[in-house]
Design a protein that fits this description.
Structural class: mainly beta
Strand content: over 45%
Number of helices: 2
Length: 335
């Protein structure tokens, strides 16, 4: 009964967090130095927030998981070419490395919605093996071979390791309540960001996927909400709700080397394909911020009302930012 009560309390906390994040609009924070009119080249209506984003490996499509809708956006035309009905309250989205499948988690279920990206139709949902862990599944990372999904489940304080496409697997218990996960390009190291009982500071724990064990822990800013790894694996970053800030991690040294202030409530984080730019979406402040990775400094910021999530095309020319019921296409060169 105590375990069930703890689960209910954690699940309710997640509901409150999702509702709060979805409801936030532009508010206090650093003032963007670029007008939206100068940077936004297109706006795509996708559905009610929260809207979470994933980029296809070839950069041809962006997948936007809205509240009950999954939209497929053509990056060339900046238009939605498909919209499909899915479960409410999306909590995570990821694309398989071969670009053939898109997986979406939602707040209350123990299944993943599966999009066949070759036909833009929904396949049968993937039933996760952990039937007793109903709900709580969120951000995920897919192995380079596409045969394993690593899913953060902060409600149950677990890292879930799922075989694809069977849904079989296991779970491990990190020393943090995981909020997000990210893999190195070779798939050997998983970065797990989260909080211990006190969220300041936050931590990133490194999980060796071959040995299936945690190997190191790095202190970052308070309440890390997102984590991303540079393509070459030398740096990692966390977007920290407390501060608010972005922590830059030297992976070889195993420590945080810089803390970069960003606008309030950084809920979206992405690293450009060349590793030169870190993109941050700040929901409450309503801003997209570009960070120069080499100099660990803010390069520029543009106003995007309710900016929630962010992805960038592999060629670095376009950035897609979700805000409210829309996805905004941003000319990266402006920043």
């Amino acid at each position: 009964m105590r375990r069930y009560a703890g689960y209910v309390a954690g699940l309710w906390a997640s509901v409150v967090a999702v509702v709060a994040l979805a409801a936030c609009a532009a508010g206090p924070g650093a003032t963007p130095n670029v007008a939206a009119a100068a940077a936004v080249v297109a706006t795509v209506s996708v559905g009610p927030p929260p809207v979470l984003l994933a980029m296809a490996p070839d950069g041809r499509h962006v997948y936007a998981a809205a509240n009950g809708t999954l939209a497929v956006i053509d990056t060339g035309s900046g238009a939605a070419i498909a919209k499909l009905r899915t479960s409410a309250n999306s909590t995570g989205i990821a694309v398989s490395p071969d670009g053939r499948r898109v997986y979406v988690a939602d707040l209350f279920s123990n299944t993943l919605a599966v999009l066949d990206a070759t036909t833009n139709t929904l396949a049968a949902p993937l039933n996760l093996f952990v039937q007793r862990f109903r709900g709580g599944f969120g951000w995920m990372a897919i192995s380079p071979a596409g045969d394993t999904a690593y899913i953060a489940n902060g409600v149950n304080n677990t890292l879930v390791v799922v075989e694809l496409p069977s849904g079989r697997g296991d779970y491990v218990m990190p020393d943090v309540r995981p909020s997000d996960v990210a893999l190195t390009a070779d798939g050997t190291t998983l970065f797990v960001a989260g909080c211990k009982p006190v969220c300041s500071p936050g931590f990133v724990q490194l999980y060796d996927t071959r040995r299936q064990q945690f190997t190191a822990e790095i202190e970052v800013g308070g309440n890390p909400y997102r984590v991303a790894v540079a393509p070459d694996g030398t740096r990692a970053y966390t977007a920290n709700l407390s501060g608010p800030s972005v922590s830059a991690i030297d992976v070889a040294a195993g420590r945080t080397t810089a803390s970069i202030p960003v606008p309030v409530q950084p809920t979206g984080l992405a690293v450009s394909a060349d590793g030169a730019t870190v993109w941050v979406a700040s929901q409450t402040a309503g801003a997209l911020t570009a960070i120069d990775a080499a100099g660990a400094r803010v390069r520029g910021s543009v106003a995007i009302r309710g900016a929630r999530d962010v992805v960038a095309t592999p060629d670095g020319r376009r950035v897609f930012v979700s805000g409210g019921e829309s996805v905004y296409v941003v000319n990266a060169a402006v920043l």
